Amino acid sequence: MNAVILTVGDEILIGQITNTNAAWLGERLGLAGVTVARMETVGDDEPAIRRALGRALEEAELVVVTGGLGPTHDDVTVSAVAEGFGRAVAFRPELMEEVEAKFAARGLVPLAAHRAFAEVPEGFEVLPNPKGMAPGLWGARDDGRLVAVLPGVPYEMKAIVEDHVLPRLRDRVDGGVVLHKTLLTVGEGETALAERLGALSDGLGEGVTLAFLPGLGMVRLRLTVRGSDRVAAQAQLDAGADRLRHALGDLVFGEDDETLEGVVGEGLAARGLTLAVAESCTGGAVAARLTSAPGASRYFVGGIVAYDNAVKRDALGVEAATLQAHGAVSEPVARQLAAGARAALGTDLAVATTGVAGPTGGTPEKPVGTVWLGYADAAGTHAVRLRFTPDRAVNIALSTTAALNLLRRQLLRRDRQG
Predict the structure, then answer these.
(1) What is the pLDDT of residues 284-293, one digit of tens each?
(2) Which tens digit of pLDDT belongs to each residue from 360-391?
(3) Do residues 277 and 287 make contact, with C-beta atoms less than 8 angstroms apart?
(4) Region 346-369 average pLDDT
(5) What is the pLDDT at residue 174?
(6) Phi and psi based region of residue 125 (left: phi greater than 0; alpha: psi -120 to 50; beta: remaining)
(7) Cβ 218 vs Cβ 184: under 8 Å
(8) What average pLDDT does the segment 326-330 reach?
């Protein structure tokens, strides 16, 4: 089966939001054995949506539409799809009852405009939305070509796809299996990883392909196997992943949907260790990443954002003479920040960040993008100097990832030392 993904929304065309829905759908459809032939974005214009839908249905067996299912005047996807299929839009009382019940659960009463959530093209199957108000829709043309119409809100769209769309597709798709596994790496860039792997990149086994997917401070390595037998394909995939892990060692921190903060957190919890953070240039971003992982209270005690030097001195015990002699962005201050956080919060470990995030504040000796990370445990302290970019947001993101990776590597070092 091949597919076209059609995204609706003026906000995407003018760059107000990033179209993450299309990327996520492309990946999920591929895992289900569906080949995505094309992606298209159109604005909140009924004729434009109708024309795009018509083009898509001429070239693909499946069209997945996201966006434009809300109750406002610019949400015209339902009427466009109905007209494109030659169907009338019908009011479904049972859907309105569900809308009323959802509002009542929040102590609210729906407005007249919310009636739109109960209006669907005749002959379309309703796909329940467990996360929001607008249901998904599933329809078929007389020639058997399919359309799935989904909300544009990502977490609502994903829930409907996982619960209702993918099971329907798996029942229809024939002709083999497509399996993916993604290894997650941190600490080296895409080019360095490719050089490290060398010929192995093209020698992971018959039918196994490798793609490099770089991000801020991390690179995902996606392995794909296509075959006719699921068991054999899975064996090929696992063997390819094992070869990559062996070649890259500690650069691999997880796979698929794991996160660096989750892996670090589980590592701390498994070892019974507690953690504190002291942050200057990252402004709380390290703590935010750590506490985004479920169960973070098992190991994360707290953090201190010590942006001003007075806070570094008074809250974390950084020596005034050290600040005077070396400046806030320096190895000794990074060490003292980590040691001070560990002492102040009574934890086993601590990590600290201090740097010149930019775009101003740099000097010839400490240009924008200079960052020091500090680490402290019962054995003492040490610090790592890094150089990043002229971009503030990028520097904060890279520093946060580097701090988490420093913690991960320290946990591995402790294991090796016994």
Answers:
(1) 999 999 999 9
(2) 999 999 999 999 999 999 999 999 999 999 99
(3) yes
(4) 97
(5) 61
(6) beta
(7) yes
(8) 97
Give pTM, 2 decimals. Answer: 0.80
Model confidence over 153-180: pLDDT tens digits? 999 999 999 999 999 998 776 656 788 8
Neighbours of 393 (CB within 10 A): 11
Do 115 and 96 contact (CB within 8 A), yes or no?
yes
Q: Which residue has the tokens 């859907």?
A: 95
* Residue 229: band (very low, low, confident or very high) from pLDDT cuts 50, 70, 90: confident
3-state secondary structure labels for all residues of the chain: CEEEEEEECHHHHCCCCCCHHHHHHHHHHHHCCCEEEEEEEECCCHHHHHHHHHHHHHHCCEEEEECCCCCCCCCCHHHHHHHHCCCCEEECHHHHHHHHHHHHHCCCCCCHHHHHHHEEECCCEEECCCCCCCCEEEEECCCCCEEEEECCCHHHHHHHHHHHHHHHHHHHCCCCEEEEEEEEEECCCHHHHHHHHHHHHHCCCCCEEEEEEECCCEEEEEEEEEECCHHHHHHHHHHHHHHHHHHHHHHEEEECCCCHHHHHHHHHHHHCCCEEEEECCCCCHHHHHHHCCCCHHHCEEEEEECCCHHHHHHHHCCCHHHHHHHCCCCHHHHHHHHHHHHHHHCCCEEEEEEECCCCCCCCCCCCCCEEEEEEEECCEEEEEEEECCCCHHHHHHHHHHHHHHHHHHHHHHHHHHC
pLDDT, mean of residues 60-86:
95
Residue 267 CA to residue 251 CA, distance in Å, equals 16
Burial of 76 (0-12, 13-18, 19+ CB in 10 A): buried
